[in-house]
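Hi C.,

You asked whether I'd gotten around to modeling the 387-residue construct. I have! Everything is below, sequence then structure, no commentary in between.
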Amino acid sequence: MTLAIQNGIVMAFAVLYLPLIDEFGASRGEVAAVQSAVLLLGGFGSPLIGWALDRLGPRRLFQYGAVVAAAAFVVASRVDSLPLLVLAYGVAGGLGLSALGSQANLVVAALWFPAARGRAIAVADLGTGLGAFAFTLLGQTLVSALGWRTTLLVWSALLVLVVVPLNGLQRLPPREPAVAPGARPPPDWTLSDALGAAPFWWLAAMRFFGACAFPLMNTHMVAYAIGQGIAPRTAAAALGAVSLVSLAGRLTTGWLCDRIGRPETLTLTYASAALGIGGLVLLTMTGSPAWLVVYVALYGVAQGSSGIVASARAADVFAGASFGAIYGWLSLAIGPGEALGAWVGGWFFDAWGSYLPAFGFAVAALAAGLVAIWRVRAGHPGRAGST
């Protein structure tokens, strides 16, 4: 529920966007800076969130984050200038929301259920899709009936009345390493240990390449489909359908993670994504809209698999007292990958007049991510298996 509310609020900025432009008489780029601040804090703030999770624990981190975000939205509902909105909503609100995001929630799920990490992470991650779907509709209804300022007060109320009490009993599991009687427990990974170990960098590479591929497709798929003669509303509906299909895909990914292994699961999901991208190529070759349906089904199943597999594998290797900080630094690889993927799709189109080379780049990025996940080896700090 925490993740659903957090991601729902982040995604619902889309329905606030045009009312904010009308309110402040600013350009689209200037108003988009509000959301850019939220996203930047969510990405580049990941080491800080990891550090706070290790020291405060999830209960205080989630409750403090909810209170900060709620207070920021109350202030944002009263501002009369765009720079103040950027500071209140974008910076203060973004900081509070980042504490409630996927990073901390997936860490908690991974540590609580070591024998079923894939499934636990997948169930927790359902909140991202459900929240985006529900809050976009709710936000549009609220904005149309009450205006954007009152909508921000509703978000604030949900954070205080739902997220704060919901996390009153939240905590991390007790640390009980399984060791033989009389034996010393294996040493915990520290952040410095992890940064000097090969598994960390292979996992970072996997996250980077996956972040290149999926945002590229999500950013440019609608424009590509319209260029192939698909009606704009149908193309947009296909993008929304990808999110809905991904809900089942996330559960399947989590189940497979625990049944057949992390690299094996990512191989299957990335292969499905590549076949879905191939469906778009066939849309160009045949002109049949049926291939768009194939894309939604095969690509949608793989949407979200990168985060589930990477979180489970990272916990396999680095679980311990510093896992939050380690995972926070690992998450820094996502932002640059997303930025590169979204940009390079447009660059390829500008250079070649076609999205097909960009689709080839996306498939190549998926292949590179698979190489990286298969190179991750579990071990202990200072041992050969960790290098």
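If it helps when you're writing up: The radius of gyration is 21 Å.

Thanks,
B.
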